[in-house]
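Reply to dn_fold:

You asked what the input looked like. This is it:
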Amino acid sequence: MKKCLSNFDLKLIALITMTIDHIGVVFGTPFYYALRIVGRISFPIFAFLLTEGYVHTKKFSRYLLRLVVLAVISEVIYDYVFYDSFFYLDANNVFFTLALGLVTLKLLDISKKTITKYVQNKFDYYIALSFVTTIILILMGLMATIFHVSYGMLGILVISFFYLFKGKPAVLVLAILVATLLLAEPIQLFSLLSFLCIYFYNQKLGKQSKFFFYLYYPAHILVLGIIKLLLSM
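and this is what came back:
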């Protein structure tokens, strides 16, 4: 079957499904659960694209800085629209999750290279790698939970699994399924529908509109907030 979705196409699908989800959250329409189910598709696609970006970026620090800056800029809008407060510590937007996930990928990469350099025995290598990988995932997952970023530990695991199990689709789907069952509400299982989109990824960039995708996140939340405010008058 032909792979027909570019990086650009996947980003567009993620943004559309995310927007549908946020419409359900902000307005609580009669179709609330249907909109939230559609919205579950977005995060795994963002997680997958983050791992693709990590693998191909030549400037990790700049990539991370973009995510952090956007997370900080978006947070005030995010808090006000979703929680009616300009400063709400119990929930932080998804770009904090992506930033923590990116750091996790870097730590996994560094640990693998270090173990490869110093551990020669194959059995010892896999034991050491498994142990260190588990510790990194637990610590970064706990950090995501403590700081109340979107998707918490599950978000970090999903991002990491896309990186760790690249080229092993059956293992990847099983790992994300188990993590979702253990760490999320049942509705999050609909996130597995995202694999139908990811399957058709053709490894091509497609159209280039980097800043549009970055700016869309705070902009669409702001627009929804303005509409909500106008409707309440």
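DSSP finds ten helices and no strands in the chain.
Hope that clears it up.
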